[in-house]
Amino acid sequence: xxxxxxxxxxxxxxxxxxxxxxxxxxxxxxxxxxxxxxxxxxxxxxxxxxxxxxxxxxxxxxxxxxxxxxxxxxxxxxxxxxxxxxxxxxxxxxxxxxxxxxxxxxxxxxxxxxxxxxxxxxxxxxxxxxxxxxxxxxxxxxxxxxxxxxxxxxxxxxxxxxxxxxxxxxxxxxxxxxxxxxxxxxxxxxxxxxxxxxxxxxxxxxxxxxxxxxxxxxxxxxxxxxxxxxxxxxxxxxxxxxxxxxxxxxxxxxxxxxxxxxxxxxxxxxxxxxxxxxxxxxxxx
Length: 285
Known about the structure:
- By secondary structure, the protein is of the alpha/beta class.
- The chain has helices spanning 3-6, 68-76, 104-119, 133-144, 163-178, 181-185, 192-203, 214-218, 238-246, 262-265, 267-280, and strands at 12-13, 21-28, 31-40, 52-55, 80-84, 126-131, 149-155, 224-229, 250-255.
- It has a nine-stranded mixed sheet with strand order 1-2-3-5-4-6-7-8-9, with helices on both faces.
- Helix 2 packs parallel to helix 11 (267-280) and helix 3 (104-119) crosses helix 4.
- The chain is globular, with a radius of gyration of 18 Å.
- Mean pLDDT is 92; it is low at 1-18.
């Protein structure tokens, strides 16, 4: 039975995102939100085994991943679930007066993702693959729910706030206001101001400077691969090195000639590393 047939009860065709995408309605913090999602299957394979759940960056969405999730599916032989968090893509936008709090990534990891898994019947252990904020969310989910996570791949995750992060986000906010960045991002979000405002608003809030998830990293027990570029403009290599110091089973990959998006800057190396990592750590039945 296909993934689409298995989960038909929870889904309906989304009117906006296009072919192969759906939305599911979830209860969250006293309201109902719609989450855009997409199933992918490997070429030439049955996609048996744990599902890979992709968690996008702070300005990301399903569309922003482009063909990277499909390439990972093809390389690993596994199915994938890709989704846009509330406020992003064609999921429910952030309300105009809604300001995110310092625990916004915890809420996604501990509340939204578990609700999505329940709605789509993803009870078996899953792989997590997250980029940037999505990498931090993957870490938080894996640390809280280790029995239901086969392993985690973290691309340029954050565990603390650094000056380089704030400086780069401030530059992005300036570019959003004065250049064509807003127009370019609008191709990936139904409400681009919802996505950008939520992300930049919390990261540039002085109250966020003390945010730190090293304690949660110390609770990380599942196999983890943390990947970061040596030229990352949003964080130093200390981000993934601290995860390795705190976690129990963490492998590091530091990539030269690579910025904040390893899956774009060094796609081939990342895909090979992900495939080898998942094959090595695949749970035996």
